[in-house]
UniProtKB/TrEMBL annotation:
Residues 156-235 form the Quercetin 2,3-dioxygenase C-terminal cupin domain. Belongs to the pirin family. InterPro entries: Pirin, Pirin_N_dom, Quercetinase_C, RmlC-like_jellyroll, RmlC_Cupin_sf. This is Quercetin 2,3-dioxygenase. Residues 13-122 form the Pirin N-terminal domain.
Length: 241
């Protein structure tokens, strides 16, 4: 199968707005449903959220999902029914395994400052596992040019966080203008430009909120033209086989 690159523009994403939330969806989510855009590879959710000060998501349930949250600006307070608490900020990686069922809330406690974050979901290899939580500070690692592996379930792969999916890994890079990195070879790559402007080799330009869905990717180069942050899902399987 030939390699492909499908560029999805920021303006074409689904949008949910409330008095306290602006949420942009890369895939079908909630009331926003596109039958031909429910996932890519193993990635089901890539929500780009801005939550207003002193507001947030009240306690709500999840089940059988690996949920990774990456904060771009501000702080997000997490609390769940297994007793875990944490305040997530830029450079602090977080993963929640919903497993057999968990309740949690996500709040912006700042009186003045919005919180901007990306939340991503993949399905675990096994259903009904014990719910779990992990967080780890990796901000210092992002000072070096290159991809930092935030979360992975791929055997033998070092990562800050573990995933209960043996075919998926999430990487992040913070780049200065002129920096260039090689993307990992994989059957499926989801490249999300969280901020800045970049060029994907044989794919074209990506600006903030754009994504590239790549199949059979083999070490393509990604080059920043201004300070940028990029989230890359490396996936060696897809839903349904």
């Amino acid at each position: 199968m030939p390699a492909t690159v499908d560029i999805r523009r920021a303006a074409d994403r689904g949008l949910t707005t409330t008095p306290w939330l602006e949420s942009r969806h890369s895939f079908s989510f909630g009331d926003h449903y596109e039958p031909d855009n429910t996932h890519f590879g193993l990635l089901l959710v890539n929500n780009d959220d801005i939550v207003a000060p002193r507001t947030g998501f009240d306690t709500h349930p999840h089940r059988d999902m690996e949920i990774v949250t990456w904060v771009l600006e501000g702080e997000l307070a997490h609390q769940d029914s297994t007793g875990n608490r944490g305040v997530i900020y830029p450079g602090l990686a977080q993963r929640m395994s919903a497993g057999s069922g968990i309740l949690h809330s996500e709040k912006n406690g700042s009186p003045t400052r919005p919180v901007h974050f990306v939340q991503m979901w993949v399905i675990p290899d096994e259903t009904g596992i014990t719910p779990g939580y992990q967080q780890d500070e990796i901000g210092n690692q992002l000072d070096n040019v290159g991809l930092v592996t935030v979360a992975s379930g791929i055997p033998g792969r070092d990562a800050a966080l573990s995933l209960h999916n043996r075919a998926a890994a999430l990487h992040v890079a913070r780049l200065s203008a002129g920096d260039s990195i090689s993307l990992p070879p994989a059957p499926y790559l989801h490249v999300f430009a969280a901020r800045g402007r970049l060029t994907l080799e044989e794919g074209g330009e990506l600006t903030e909120g754009d994504a590239a869905r790549c199949t059979d990717a083999d070490g393509r180069r990604l080059t920043a033209h201004q300070p940028a942050e990029v989230l890359v899902w490396e996936m060696h399987a897809k839903l349904g086989g």
